[in-house]
Amino acid sequence: MKLSNIHLKNYRNYEELSLTFSKNLTIFLGENAQGKTNILESIYVLAMTRSHRTTNEQELIQWEKDQAYITGTVQKKTTKTPLELTLSKKGRKTKINHIEQKRLSSYVGQLNVILFAPEDLSLVKGSPQLRRKFLDMEIGQIDPIYLFDLVQYQSVLKQRNQYLKQLAEKKQTDLIYLDILTEQLAEFGGKVLFARKKFVKRLEFWANSLHQQISHQKEQLRISYVATVPFEEEATAEEIQGTFLQELQRNRKKELFKASTFIGPHRDDLQFFVNEQNVQTYGSQGQQRTTALSIKLAEIDLMKEETGEYPILLLDDVMSELDDSRQLHLLETIEGKVQTFLTTTTLDHVKNKMTVEPEIFYVHQGEIKGAETE
């Protein structure tokens, strides 16, 4: 999978920008706050329909403009697919091959991306919410059904919490409606949990292999999915749904008192163990960074395994955050097989470490100089 071009209009600090990419490694070079990350972000937004940097989509639209546009062409083994995304106050509009898509799950997955930014090094030490978002974003790209089930789960969860609040405030007394919402929550939640369980197992397989390489065979990495709904490792989606429903019914009094849903995928987490020691609690900073790097790189092979195509890798000023050894492992892993877009303030991190010749775009105050610019 490759992105052969991208066009921006009224996006962040770019009124109009067209770039064509001809090589496997593209570097956006320039000082900080010049617009390098905005280009990388636009590729991510074209793929995922949302930014990794902000939840306020209005920030993506240039000041005093009504809409922002991103278009690009995805090249796969046998197909070329134009993608279009329009951002406005009314929301997002997506098109594949110039045909508008009504469902997010129909669009996401056309362009698979893996983003690695400095904040991703906090995947291990950060909040559970960060790790849940990581799971949802990555599984959603390779499994559109997961994305649909997740959206349904979140919708029912919101309705259920609102109804629990109304019951707690004595504004409602109908427990039958609560039963209906509870059954729906268990149905969609069970599917979400089953998909996460499968994904984490495959992620652990690839990440452990990479972690051993980076640590020179000194460390083993284990990833554990910490579920608030207890289920067996070999449980089916239907069995998980049944257990989830039982647990919700068992917690009903507590939920009615607190007016909130206490268990489910929205409360779950990941734990990482290096040589069976919890790296989040007891690991050194080096071990935590190696774990984060192993996980991000593992996604490359995992996505290839699931989709038949390598994803696109976005490296946002992450080289400066890694020592020489980890930089080398990162570059060796991606070299020759993954189209990579990299932002940096200096070429020192990649010079003499890669055998492929990069395509370099120089970024200064929102102006781009380099090959194939328009």
* Spatial shape: globular
Helix and strand succession? EEEHEEEEHEHHHEHHEEHHEHEEE
Rg calc: 22 Å
Strand content: 15-25%
- Number of β-strand runs: 15
Number of helices: 10
Q: Looking across the biggest beta sheet, what order are the strands in?
A: 2-1-4-5-6-7
Summed over residues and divided by their number, the pLDDT gives a mean of 90
CATH architecture title of the domain at 1-112 and 309-374 = 3-Layer(aba) Sandwich
Segments where pLDDT lies below 50 for 5+ residues? none
Distance between the termini: 24 Å
Can you tell me the CATH superfamily of the domain at 1-112 and 309-374? P-loop containing nucleotide triphosphate hydrolases
Question: Percentage of helical residues?
Answer: 40-55%
Major pleated sheet: 6 strands, antiparallel
- Class of secondary structure makeup: alpha/beta
Give the class-level CATH name of the domain at 1-112 and 309-374.
Answer: Alpha Beta
Enter the CATH topology name of the domain at 1-112 and 309-374. Rossmann fold
Family: Belongs to the RecF family.
Protein name: DNA replication and repair protein RecF
GO molecular function: ATP binding; single-stranded DNA binding
Keywords: ATP-binding, Cytoplasm, DNA damage, DNA repair, DNA replication, DNA-binding, Nucleotide-binding, SOS response
